[in-house]
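Thanks for the sequence, V.! I ran RNA-directed DNA polymerase from mobile element jockey right away. Repeating your input here for the record:
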Amino acid sequence: MEFEELPSDRDFCSLEQQSNTYENINDFVSKYDLGDKIFIFHMNIRSASKNLDEVLCMLEMSKVMPDFLVFTEAFGTFVCHPTSLPGYTCHSSINPRNRNDGVVVYSKNIFSCTVVQISFKGATGLDIGFTIGSESYSLIGIYRSPSANCDILEFTDELTKTLKGKTANHCFIVGDINIDLPSENNPAVDHYMDSISSMGFLSLLNEPTRVLHDSKTQIDHVFARTKVLEMFPAIIKSDITNHFATALIFPTASFKRSHGTKIRIKKVIGYKRLEVIFRQTDFTNITNSNDVNYASEELINVLQKSVEAATELKKVSSREQKLTPWITDGIIKSLRTRELLRKKAERQKNNSLLKERYVKFRNLVKEIIRKAKTSFFSNQIESAEGNPKKTWDVIKTAIAGTTSKDSVCPLVKFLINKNKLQTNIAQKTACNLLNTFFTQIGSRLTSSILKKSYGNTKNQSYHSPLNKFVIPLMSESDLENILKTKKGSSAPGLDAIQLSTIKRYYKFLKFPILHVFNLSISMSVFPECFKTAKVIPLYKGGDVSDEGNYRPISMLSSLSKILEKHVKDHLYAFLEHNKVLNSRQFGFRKSAGVEEALYALTSDLYDIREQKRKEPLLC
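Predicted structure:
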């Protein structure tokens, strides 16, 4: 790879002068418009399981969500079971070499990232790759142990070999390297700096990142190799650990965000406005139609336009923007008070009483945060009493954080990495591959069944009930009862019509809905628009390139779900009444489940033993 020409001494100095130490995140970020910039935040967290909550409170107080969070010295237990954060995808190093080791990187879900594990002698890291437009980026997070056994020269040589293979247009290194810069008469440190500089990297920090009462060291590093000279590095003071945080903001040509790193606007439905719209809507073109496809499509069209007309943009207050649900306004106020005390104690270094007051209050805030989190989840578990599913959801959230699943399909990531495709092309390719596979499942199963031989079936007779099944028309009470059993929070289909909207405005929508459903039943025609589903490929495990390792989850239209429930209820009642179902079928039946199946099995076993029969038992 050909490196860009290194900046002149003047440019290099201008970069160094930008490296300032700030009192907090807001003091740093408020200087820049983040609309077209990437924000990277790094901290040596010294046990994430112990200090992550305080870091989240600090971010919550600033109301600034970095694009990438890099935590070093995360400790092995947390690295193996990292906490999930809403809006982020978590990447963690594997096989920590000791209890202190580990790197964890959180990337915003808007980025489709590739992850490469890095392992040096005495050091661990992650290489996070992502693209923005046509430009490729590499963010390398490293933690190097301060142990005397971790030779600087060996580490430097291994790091140089790794950097030689980097072909990204822009490459950044952040982390706790435990090498103090700048050095005086230390050949190993000089070799480290010379080697990295020879690869085209510039050091962006020039102030201490670890300040103790008797020493100041710059052992947290930020390096950049990029065409962009307009970079804004920073050291951010923090008393969470004995390391300050480091940060970097840099602009990109193809990256735009509507509201910086703050989510300030969201779409909400004006329910009063929607009620007025439905009250004034004329549904006669639907109720007078005898064409089931036209009537169903027109109904969906009216619902979509009505909801869109009643939807408004709402400014989200800072209180509604939370990384974790247990962070209260009181905690934020305590953090601000702690920060003021810290500043006063730094200015009045000889005031021992003020320092003692600050230390006591700092420890008190740590205890407040711990108790607030414990109290929140204790109350959640108490409120979920009698609901096992809700209880386990609370426990999982308390242990692993708010679930934030990666929004990028593993197949898309595979195509990006292997075939070097752009994200939009990889997404289309993955959709075509999975759609082709899913739509051929039925024909493949049918073909395999027909190939099997089941012997001579010509003389076999089958029992056929005298009664015939007829789907009855749906009444108002049928529709009302079905809506009562349906959860309003269930995911909508491709038409985006929420079931909660239908339930809320039942009295206005019941007649057009009943007309469409009963028209479908009487004409024995299932509406075409109900046959289209939004399919989510759920990765089950195994080879990510194998389409068979994805399970299709179909998001059906809310209207389709109601009609299908009506048919299913009456069909099930017919099968039960005519005793068509096998008495030993325990799955998907009312008042039958695992307990009944186990009872039947044990009863058969007892009968076989008592009668001393020798026969196979199939179950």
